[in-house]
Structures are given as structure tokens and as C-alpha cells.
Design goal:
Strand content: 25-35%
Largest sheet: 5 strands, antiparallel
Oligomer: single chain
Helix content: 25-40%
Number of domains: 1
Number of strands: 5
Strand order of the largest sheet: 1-3-5-4-2
Distance between the termini: 12 Å
């Protein structure tokens, strides 16, 4: 399994990139913390970060399992839980988006404002 992550801003761009399938890719939003759009959620998280003098209000992580490792929705969500636990971010709000392109699948997990403040540079990049 490969896991990468980075702190970022640009909530409009991130939401657009996440929701626009390329080629035969299928995009499925598996989890939002409350009823809203992904774009509005990311904008809200970025604004909260800026109010607290942060600059990058989103933590973007991707989880890509090994080939031949079948994943169900519950296994994807558990993988997102484990990632949050390992980064001590399990109490943060999150959005979970699944991408499939016929060859591989990966999960994108976004965290709420200030999710990057306590991460050291090694953890921020993967």
C-alpha cells in the first residue's frame, strides 16, 4: 500500500480536480462530515484556517492499495481511519473520495482546518 499526503490550500481547485473524472475514471464521494458540496466544505475549512492565521487549511492524502488487494467501501473507510490515527488527526472532520480508473483505485482523504499545524515535514509529505 502506498500513502502520500501534503498540506495545501486552493480549495476551489482541489474540489474541481477531485470531482472531474478523467478517461474512464469513476469518482465517488464516500463520506462528508455533514450535508454540503465538496467545494463549499473545502472553502469553509480554508476560511477557518485563515481566521486562525493558517495558510493551508487542507491536508490531502491519497491511499493506493497493492495490486490484487480487493477493497470494499468499509475497507476504504477503515484505511482512512487508520491514516487519521497514525497522523493523530482522527478528531478532525474529513471528506473521503474514491477514484477508480479500471486499472487501479485510490482514496483521497481531506482534513479540516489546522490539520497540518502539528505535523512535521516528513509526515506532511508522506
Amino acid at each position: 500500500m502506498i500513502v502520500i499526503g501534503i498540506c495545501r490550500d486552493a480549495p476551489h481547485q482541489l474540489a474541481q480536480t477531485l470531482l472531474q473524472p478523467k478517461g474512464d475514471k469513476r469518482v465517488l464521494v464516500l463520506e462528508l462530515p455533514y450535508p454540503t458540496t465538496l467545494r463549499d466544505l473545502f472553502l469553509e475549512w480554508q476560511c477557518l484556517s485563515e481566521v486562525t492565521r493558517g495558510t493551508k487549511g487542507l491536508y490531502h492524502a491519497q491511499i493506493c492499495p497493492a495490486a490484487g488487494n480487493p477493497m470494499t467501501t468499509s475497507r476504504w473507510l477503515r484505511a482512512a481511519d487508520i491514516l487519521g490515527e497514525n497522523l493523530s488527526l482522527q478528531q478532525r472532520l474529513r471528506a473521503v473520495v474514491l477514484h477508480e480508473d479500471g486499472k487501479r483505485s485510490y482514496l483521497s482523504r481531506r482534513l479540516a482546518a489546522d490539520g497540518c499545524r502539528h505535523l512535521d515535514p516528513v509526515e506532511q509529505h508522506g
